[in-house]
Batch of 2 targets.
Target 1
Amino acid sequence: VNFADKMRRLFDSATVQTRVPTDEAVFEKIRTAFTRTVDGQSAQGEPSSWKFIATRPWAKYAIAAAVLGIIALLPLGYGATKLIKGFISIRQLPAIKPELVEGGTLSPDGKRFAGLTRASELVVIDTATGARRKLAQNCSGRVVWSADGSEIAAIQRDPQGGKHAAIAVSLPTGGMRTLMEDPPYHLQDWSPDGKLMLFRKSLKLGLESVVMIHLESKKETVLVADTGGWPLSARFSPEGDLVAYITRQGDRSTLHLRAVEGTRQVEYADFPGTIVSPQWSPDGAYVVFKGTQTGLERRFTDLWALRVHGHEFVGAPVPVVPDIEQIELSNWARNGQLACRMGFRLGGIFTLPVDLQTGQATGAPRQLVRLGGLPRGFCWSPDGEEIALCQELGLGFLSARTGAKIRDFPVPGIHATGRGLSWSPDGKFIAQACLDPERKGGVFLGTVATGEVRLLVPQEDVASNPTWSPDSQSLAYQYKGDIYVVSIADAQPRRLTSSTKGEGDKSARSFSHPVFAPDGGSVAYIAARGQKSDTVLATTIDGTQTREVFHAKDGQSVNAFDWSPDGRHIVFTPGDKEVWCVATPGGEPFRIADISDLGGEAWAWWPEWSPRGDAVIFAVINEKYKYCVMEDFLPEE
Amino acid sequence: MWQDQRLVWRLRRGKVEALRLIYDQYKLDLLKLAIILTGDLHHAEDVVQDVFLKLAGSYDRISADGNLKNFLITCLVNRIRTLHRDRGRQQAAQFDRPAAERGPASPPEQWAIVNERMQRLSAAMAELPLEQREVVTLRFEGGMGFRQIAGIQKASINTVQGRYRYGMAKLRSLLDGEVET
């Protein structure tokens, strides 16, 4: 096959589609220009007008400007009158402070908002006054109201490591009752009659199902056996007779409508993109969802509404609120308010100049690149000129000096888990912890020159933080709380550490974030006991000797670290707004960067020392949210 | 061809439905050409809208026995050249801009949705000079012969063939490992 034939195939397989709403708006613009031209031609017989224009040249420009103005305004007019209802009301709930974590919901009457604090407390807040009341502790996940608004359900963890439970707290009395012991962790919804609950059930990392459980009989009905790694949600209809839920296959989604009794099931599978977060309108006449379509340079996420009548979808979905990528839908209260959280997670990679000899910063941290969220993983190139960055469809390469994008490295079908990336010192390979299209986890090797990707170490679960030995012959990685080393030649992993699972959380011992020592003779890693991770140990490659590299004091943690190229320092992030450095062995740690000026919600993570030793890069996350309600956005009947 | 002539004949009589049929028939072809030639989705959308607006504004001057597709492609190529000349090459989009920088909410505005292959193809084509890009694109996507392309480019056939060879050599160096056999 010659290259011209290959190019012909590439041209044939490159496709364009048009978005139907915009398609109609564009044609409307063209049609208007056409009819105006046709009308203008018909009016040529009126000599007085033409004489006026002919004798006053500026009139031509004025007319042209008016026509262009009309043309420019047409799409907006079209959207306002035909697609998007004109008076969508989006109102902030100023009483709901953003320190609540994701998963809060509005009461059926819209007067209260229930959610979880960062300290895992279940609280209910008066939306008018902001008065807050603590209802329970050690809760997690989504909060769900009973249909009459008298109880709030959540998942409560046992702090001693015992079984967790689905609980319901009475709003009038504050009393708590257990709905179910040891349920799946991710509560989705509670049926209006209080008898059924919907859950996302984690089977293992990367494998989840969606189930409906009868609280009395414990009978479990599987709605989605395997979500394909996507966090799919399910919701009961207001009457409680139907469940709307989503399945996803690659870049397409299907919206399902299932009778609770299992007697009927219909689906809508024609949306040209992905669907998330279905929500029932209070009257049960619509299911709205976030629909995302992919463009050339960005994605477009809009709110769509699909009519439901009886147990069927009616017609095609219509867009009702455009560009809601930054909006997370919470729940649609019976008073007609769709509660949502608006804002964004601003991510970035910062670079900090450092002196290799002293470990001290020689300048202020500087933002190298801004991202739409948490970096999924990044690493230096061996020459220190580039930074490889995990993207949704593979890797991107940035200039380490300017942050400018240099090129892409597509890895089709491989799903990055955001658990580490490492470029071999010889420049040939990039190791990454990923899931393949069958969601089998493991350490994958990408060949930089050819783009070929192969699975080096297949595993049941997903590995983390692969890191290269200085001679590029071995990798160390983290898997199920232990550190492993594997030779590229034989791909036979060998465990370096022995994690333990104690009676409670406090005595459990686990190991993470391996980093090869610069001499290649040992692997350093973070040792955690219970929730406390404050020690960096190093074990020789043969596993015979382990020594302490650093032990943080005064309650400081080590959540990620890296070794300097000369092995004299380690740089670490304690899990807040600071980056620290310490000479090894036995030095006193000192702070080298502080990002407090970015705001109260910003934090630094994952420092990586450059191969030349002159800079440290690290990830920064900053969250900005506010709570709102949307009303009056459904299409006119 | 006769169908196009019939459409043009009806268009010349001010029939909106003819405009609609032409729009439906050629919008995707023109969008694809424009995306490959400009390497920029937003410019491509603007260019294709301009071409249809030009068609709408000069409907009575189109030759009823001419080739409608060639007319539209020629308009498109000329419009892109003008754009290219006036604006220079569009700077590469800022990498992975955060959602907060994308400006206020607005009605659905992006027209075209492209697949991954199209992204790869347009990225590779963006590495070629415009003249070479035109030749390669009109050859593969427009289905034109070198003589027709020479007419559009107002250049000799030898020049056009040279541009084709240089363009393909560059693409081979960029894509040969990536293009599936």
Target 2
Amino acid sequence: MSDEAPVRALLAPMIEREVDLAGDRFRVDRARVLARMAAAGAPRRRWSASVAALAAAAALLLAVTAAGWLRPARDELGVSIPTGSTVHFQPATGEGQTLVGTRAVPPAGVLETGADSRAQITTSDGLAIDLESDTRVALGALRAREGRLDLQRGAVRCKVAHRPASRPFLVVAPGVAVVDLGTVFTVRIDAATQATSVSVEEGEVLVKHRGGETRVSAPGTWSGLEAPVPSPPAAPPASSALPIASESLPPSAPAPPPAERREHAPARPTSPRKATPAPTLGDESRLLRLGLAAERQGHAQEAISIFEQFLSRYPNSPLSPDARDALRRVRQSAP
Amino acid sequence: VVASTEPRALFANTVGETARPAGVVSDGVLPYEPAREPSARAVTQSEVLRAAAAGQAWAYAALYDELHPFVAAALQKILHYTPDYDDLVQTSFELIVRSLRRPRPRPIENLGAWSSAIAARVALSSLRVKIRERRIFNRDNDGTTEAENTAGPALERQLDLRRELRWLQEALAAMHPEQAEAILLHDVLGYDLVEMARSMDVSVAAAQKRLSRGHIELRGRAERNERKGGT
């Protein structure tokens, strides 16, 4: 090789340059980079019909032959923990596993951030959920057809890519279900009052609460208190793409009850409904938690009894799949 | 924070996989075991690359977190400060994703070197555009940092450094792109011939040839510049 010394001298301004990863002059907007990566990675739709059909057939064949071992890769959640650590509680054992950095997590169990940590959950279908500090969420139904995140404590900010109407995404918090309509929004449970609030940054959400349903558009917020509020009889809406709207959520009233207030103009109540009295999501959530606590403490019979009670009282609850899973699990592990 | 461009371990090794030196790719066997109880686990490099190629968003975040120091090192060493630095980082990562989606003759072995090569190409391309537009002579892009301005060497030395950097950037931008890339990867970013060759998707012999010719070309340009009375 040729003599490198003169070349290195010529290159000195570059070789000796120190790299700055934290300075203001070299600050990088991580979210924008990730968005651009996602755009670059989006599938191109320029195939001819015949090529698309061939690809679909090949994909079907692959899916049929390899479903057993490929499925975990599709279903797993990416969990990124930029600061501190996050604990993932196993669904079967209840054991906690501390996570740091970037991890792949099955869509099951509970994820809990600490007082000094944050986490981001991403799914293969473009859902990004930021967990604030001291937040607890159940992941069990996140990858279901009706993607659902159960917020048990703290706050989550959800950025939802466009989803077909048949695959809605909702966040369930005490007394409230927030249905995404293509948007960026935050759901927060106040630690002191247990009141749930929703703020919408982009797009629109449908907040289903004890008083009925409220559409909240960006920029807008909605907040409510968890305390039970007497509701007049109301009926489910004539049509709804979501089973939760007519079956599991409490009836609506023509006007929001006193415990709930709209803080910004974009929130507007939907049409009043008539219906039979229904339980509150808060009650359902409390009963389910009781059962899960009994399960964790090893009281299998008590847990079975609570889960059975739950399923008989609230058969159409959005939490029913969790209760059924838990019941099956406890029955299998019971002596 | 000063980033090291030394190759280092990218992503944690997963349960069941033995620790491997930095940049050594997974054997391609899927790490999933159907009978195993699902649990949170570390993500392997090969898994992240597969997921990114498949368009999974979580993999982009993992890639960015791991490769940002390599991309930043390449851009900053070649360009120093540039007002569109953020955009160049975005462009680099966009090309990284596009490249991952294309079929490859062989797996990526050193992810750091590979991403550095992409960022170096982005930097060279940016240099060519700026030289064409004469923006390289703007004060904002003269290669000095605030530290150099306030507590650096004497003004005369600063001006010399700026002239040297400007000449070097123009010379590299005017050279054959493959030769310039070889010089940047090997001499500036410190990758060895094997890493450089794999990042450029050529044989080691071809990489060495590009490097040697690049050295000759760069020295020739320097001599011609000296004869003309430049730096």
